[in-house]
Amino acid sequence: MDIKQIQELIKFVSRSGVNEVAIEQKDFKITIKTNQTPTVVHATVPAPVATSAIPAAAAPLPVSATETKAAAAEDTSNYITIKSPMIGTFYRSAGPDKASFVNVGDEISTGKVICIIEAMKLFNEIESEVSGRIVKVLVDNASPVEYDQPLFLVEPI
After folding, report:
1. Is residue 15 within 8 Å of 147, Cβ to Cβ?
2. Is residue 12 part of a domain?
3. Domains in the chain, number
4. Nearest residue to 39 (alpha-carbon basis) of 56, 59, 65, 9
5. For the segment 76-135, what is each residue's pLDDT rounded down to a tens digit?
6. Nearest to residue 57, comparing CAs of 127, 3, 12, 137?
7. Strand partners of residue 30
8. Which pLDDT score is estimated for 41?
9. Is the model's pTM score more than 0.70?
10. Do 107 and 80 fall into the same domain?
11. Are residues 99 and 27 in the same domain?
12. Does 71 fall in a domain?
């Protein structure tokens, strides 16, 4: 099993909702356990495979104390959060030379394409399930996103 297969397995497990998966082959053993927040990966790999890449693929990004305080100080209770329906790479436009699908202050309606998420070389157009006004874009362009990660804050109208 190579690193790409391991990464695909991690993505599959995180989407499927199972709590634990263990795979054992003659010289390879991997156990993937999930919690509500991070995905924990424990693997024993034969010497030829680089083991340092496995934790990096599943390690959650650290959140600084400043970011946590800023998020707590901002009252977002009256906003709707649009979340990522999948793991992939977030894009605000269809191409580098194209305009963004939505910007802060734009009004959106149900069914309007608001971004693209690339997953395994497929570009998936993400449509809004709510109507309202974009208040904040929570993810940088071309950034990796996790399943259920907040992407936009929308003020309902």
Report:
1. yes
2. yes
3. 2
4. 59
5. 678 999 999 999 999 999 998 999 999 999 999 999 999 999 999 899 999 999 999 999
6. 3
7. 23, 43
8. 52
9. no
10. yes
11. no
12. no
Residue 6 · residue 21 · CB < 8 Å:
no
Does some domain include residue 67? no
User: CA-to-CA distance for 91 and 109, rounded, in angstroms?
Assistant: 19
List, as one string, the DSSP characters of the chain.
Answer: --HHHHHHHHHHHHHH--SEEEEEETTEEEEEEE-SS-EEEEEE--TTS-STHHHHHHPPPP--HHHHHHHHHS--TTSEEEE-SSSEEEESBSSTTSPBS--TT-EE-TT-EEEEEEETTEEEEEEPSS-EEEEEE-S-TTEEE-TT-EEEEEEE-
d(CA 95, CA 101): 10
Please identify which residue in the block is written with the tokens 């990660």: 149
Are residues 93 and 128 part of one domain?
yes
Quote the tokens at residue 45: 């790999």
What are residue 18's phi and psi, to 5 degrees?
-75, 155
Write out the two tokens for 67. Answer: 């970011």
Residue 137 lies in a domain: yes
- How many residues belong to the chain? 157
Residue 14 belongs to domain spanning = 3-58
